[in-house]
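Example 3.2
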Amino acid sequence: MRVLIVEDDQALGSFLKTGMELEGHHVEWVEDGEAALAHSASDHPDLVLLDLSLPKRDGMEVLAEMRARHDNTCVLVLTGRSDLNSRVQCLDIGADDCLLKPFSFYELTARCRALLRRREQFSDPVLRHGDLMLHRIEHKVVRGGRSIELTAKEFSLLEFLMMHCGECVSRSQLLTEVWQMPTETGTNLVDVYINYLRRKLDGDDLHNLKTGLIETVRGSGYRLGGPTSISLTNKIDRSYAAPRQACA
């Protein structure tokens, strides 16, 4: 999963980043509240580890603003404020959990797993966009009543695009998140698979702009658009293991 660490203590921040990366996660680390809000808005992490005592914007302010803009990212607050009122206030504002410093790294990772398990239970198993339906559990795709056979990688790519309906996603993001490949890799793999998807989704109407679903954003990447309005049943909470990022 993608983890955003918001911690101004250099030693603790470095420790958390190294530890979470060793757990296999993609980690970003910022040291102030303003950077935290910018990253959470643009990168859409699966989990935020949020300190409260931050420069520029207090952790409480960061949390309140995230929830005010309907950001449902899992937030685990890490705080040295031992008074009960602070922890209660965090939970009331919208934190998913609070962990008092100092803490065990094993407890931290266990709480992270528990948060994401609970969040995943409520994620919608079916993504919809117009007449296109993707059944995440059954790995089945249907458009206009027509069943579409996809390979595992094509399915992951389409799922990623559907979880970001209307948003631009870059080629480098797709390489990193769908293929787990370095962004500097010189390959046209993304373009090839986008064409595969277009042929399977649009069929005989491949070149019909009125029915084509995957749009090319010149110089930026791709976007799932098409003629229909975006329609997701219960906006997905981004807790699924497949990657999800918006285009910068």
